C-alpha cells in the first residue's frame, strides 16, 4: 500500500522540543511534540492532532473528532505563563496524530485499532511518562499535570475531571477537598475570572459529571499512582475555545495562583511572579 505523509509544521515558539519519531519503516514522521519546562507543571494535549500518520485504518469505535483549539490554547497558556514568571514555562506534550487513527486518552487496546496506530500511542505515553518522572525528580514536594480537552455539549462550561478527586489524591491529602473545589482551587480561580465551572465551587468534594470525570491519562499519571503527580483534566466548552480570546491569559493566571496556593511553586517563582506586571494580584 502506498503511504502518504502529511507534512507537519513544527514551527513553535516553545522549542527546543523532543520530536519523538517512530521506528524506521513504521510510517509516521513525527508523532508527539514534547517540550521541557521550568515550572512544576505539565500541560498535555491528546486530542488536537491533525496528522494522518501514514493512513492506518480509521477507528470505528469511540469519538474520532478533534478537540479543536486545545493545542493553541495550551501553547498560548504556556507563553502567558512565561510572561508572568519571567520566562518559566510548563512542560508540554502534544499528540500530533489525528484522533481518527489513535486516541491517546484511552488504553492502548481501546485507543488503537491497527498495528500502524500503536507507535503513535506509545510515543505519546513515553513522552508523558518521561515528563512526569522528570517533574517528580525536580519537584519532590509535588507537581501538577493538566490534561487539556474540549467538549461541545455545554459550550460555556469548563468541566473538571479527577475521577472524583482520585487523581489529585496527594493534593487533597495535603490541603483537603477545598484545594480541588474551593475558591483558590484551579476551577475556583477560573470561576473568579468569570468562567462557569463544573462541579460548582464549594469546600467539600462533589461528584464530577460522569461524561468528563477523567480519562486514561489522568488515571494513569495521577497522584493516586505510585509514580504519579496531581492530575486534573479540564474540558473547555466550544464557545470558550472559539470566542474567548482572554482564555489563555486567564488560564495561565489561574494556574499560577493555584500553584502558589497549593504549594507546587517554590518561593523564588512566587517572588518573581509578584514583581511581574501580570494580571495577578496577591
Ligand atoms: Zn478530549
UniProtKB/TrEMBL annotation:
InterPro entries given in the database record: N-FG_amidohydro (IPR007709)
Ranges in coiled-coil conformation: none
Alphabetized SUPFAM superfamilies for the sequence: Zn-dependent exopeptidases
Record protein name field: N-formylglutamate amidohydrolase
Keyword field contains Signal: yes
Signal sequence region: 1-21
Keyword Signal appears in the UniProt entry: yes
Domain of life, per lineage: Bacteria
Amino acid at each position: 500500500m502506498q503511504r502518504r505523509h502529511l507534512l507537519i509544521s513544527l514551527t513553535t515558539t516553545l522549542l527546543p522540543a523532543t520530536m519523538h519519531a517512530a521506528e524506521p519503516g513504521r510510517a509516521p514522521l513525527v508523532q508527539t511534540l514534547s517540550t521541557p519546562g521550568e515550572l512544576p507543571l505539565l500541560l498535555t494535549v491528546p486530542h488536537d492532532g491533525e496528522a494522518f500518520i501514514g493512513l492506518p485504518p480509521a477507528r470505528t469505535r469511540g469519538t474520532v473528532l478533534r478537540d479543536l483549539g486545545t493545542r493553541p490554547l495550551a501553547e498560548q497558556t504556556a507563553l502567558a505563563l512565561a510572561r508572568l514568571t519571567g520566562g518559566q514555562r510548563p512542560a508540554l506534550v502534544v499528540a500530533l496524530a489525528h484522533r481518527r487513527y489513535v486516541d491517546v486518552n484511552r488504553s492502548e487496546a481501546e485507543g488503537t485499532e491497527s498495528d500502524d496506530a500503536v507507535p503513535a500511542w506509545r510515543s505519546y505515553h513515553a513522552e508523558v511518562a518521561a515528563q512526569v518522572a522528570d517533574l517528580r525528580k525536580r519537584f519532590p514536594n509535588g507537581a501538577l499535570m493538566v490534561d487539556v480537552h474540549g467538549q461541545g455539549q455545554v459550550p460555556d462550561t469548563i468541566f473538571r475531571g479527577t475521577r472524583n478527586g482520585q487523581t489529585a489524591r496527594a493534593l487533597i491529602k495535603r490541603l483537603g477537598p477545598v484545594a480541588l473545589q474551593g475558591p483558590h482551587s484551579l476551577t475556583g480561580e477560573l470561576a473568579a475570572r468569570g468562567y462557569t465551572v463544573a462541579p460548582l465551587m464549594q469546600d467539600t468534594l462533589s461528584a464530577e459529571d460522569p461524561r468528563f470525570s477523567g480519562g486514561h491519562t489522568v488515571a494513569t499519571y495521577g497522584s493516586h499512582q505510585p509514580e504519579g503527580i496531581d492530575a486534573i483534566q479540564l474540558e473547555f466548552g466550544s464557545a470558550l475555545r472559539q470566542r474567548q480570546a482572554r482564555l489563555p491569559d486567564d488560564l495561565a493566571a489561574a494556574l499560577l495562583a493555584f500553584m502558589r496556593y497549593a504549594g507546587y511553586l517554590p518561593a523564588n517563582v512566587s517572588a518573581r511572579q509578584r514583581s511581574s506586571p501580570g494580571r495577578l494580584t496577591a
